[in-house]
Amino acid sequence: MSRPTKEDLAAAHGRAIPDVIAPRLRVLFCGINPGLWSAATGHHFARPGNRFWPALHRSGFTPRQLRPDEQAELLTYGLGITNLVARGTARADELTPAELVLGGQALRDKIAANRPAWLAVVGVTAYRVAFADRTAALGEQPGKLGTTRVWVLPNPSGLNAHFTVGTLAAEFARLREAATPPRAS
């Protein structure tokens, strides 16, 4: 994957990237919106320093650390990625609350159409706004979207200094354990 130029990043502002989605996934991860690096490359969580891919691997969701340009391989593990808001921005705080609310409705429609077992939203503040739940905290949420259970994870952006790769991986592992069906004996 080549490094985008300053011009590439500037041109990526407002650009959407395709979802990595299929019906009946085990977990559909939902980012807030594509950063400019992701919008420029067309790959989710693509900016160097984003901890999504290392946390996903260290938590046991994938047998090795995937690169952003290998995102389609997630489907082989029953995983996928989408975003609350489609448009790329330099920072998530460029999004308006109205955009997040509209994104929450669009996400409900994706969930209804694809029926993943779990939705994992990365970013508690964005989740609170998009789903009008001021009290949401990390972890499993009390409500469902249809039959889909909902989990909120910390934002893996390098701007979220409250979490290291290790603590992110621990949060992701809690979800993996919840999303893994018990083995038949």
From TrEMBL:
Keywords: DNA damage, DNA repair, Hydrolase. This is G/U mismatch-specific DNA glycosylase. It comes from Luedemannella helvata. NCBIfam families: PRK10201.1. Gene3D superfamilies: Uracil-DNA glycosylase-like domain (3.40.470.10). Pfam families: UDG (PF03167). The keyword Phosphoprotein does not apply. PANTHER family: G/T AND G/U MISMATCH-SPECIFIC DNA GLYCOSYLASE, G_T MISMATCH-SPECIFIC THYMINE DNA GLYCOSYLASE. InterPro entries: MUG/TDG, Uracil-DNA_glycosylase-like, Uracil-DNA_glycosylase-like_sf. The keyword DNA damage applies. Residues 18-176 form the Uracil-DNA glycosylase-like domain.
